[in-house]
Amino acid sequence: MSTNLNNGSAASGVSPVSEPLECSFCKGDFIITAELYRDEDLVVIDDRRPAGRTHWLVMPLRHIRSVEDLTPSDLPLYRKMLAVREQLLAVHYPDLTPATRYHRLRTGFHRGRRDLHIVGPLKFHVPDVISVKHLHLHVIVDVDSTIRGMKYPLWNELIFAKSDLVLKRLEDEDKKLKATGETSAETGHADL
Q1: Domains annotated on the chain, with CATH
Q2: Is 189 a known active-site residue?
Q3: By Cβ atoms counted within 10 A, which residue in 97, 117, 147, 170 is the most buried?
Q4: CA dihedral 180, 184, 185, 190 (to 10 degrees)
Q5: What predicted TM-score, i.e. pTM, was given to this entire model?
Q6: Measured between alpha carbons, how far is 192 from 116 in angstroms, rounded to an integer?
């Protein structure tokens, strides 16, 4: 059974977001086939086009456009996303061990638009590779060896950011901010 999720409605219990024009999730146009988990901050759903035996999307209810838009102030939410991922994996895949995770599990984000700096002032613009402009952590178990599975390459960080590296980037930025006394709003968003 499919349902629409409207994050801006009174029924959802979540206030309207600031960027609903291009976000199908926030507008309520995002069709959900199965919801595995929901709390006041997150929802976990099945991907409509799974790239493996299991393919979940862990999504914050608050609008964040992409992984590039995460700041150190989002660390509690991001850590919660990772904790919920681990809880669901423990329930649904108790046989997934540290030794088998590398071969069976892909977890990360498609990259949003950003500038890559080559040398000094030289830079080029990298376009979006995300189809849903709302942050969502992919959790894929037993990835297909087809073209669909190749959309989530752990080896190509230009298009797919691994969740552990995102956490490291946010923690490093947080340490720098605390050392300088700045806030994430003052410095903007850093590249991964």
Answers
A1: 3-187 (3.30.428.10)
A2: no
A3: 170
A4: 110
A5: 0.75
A6: 10
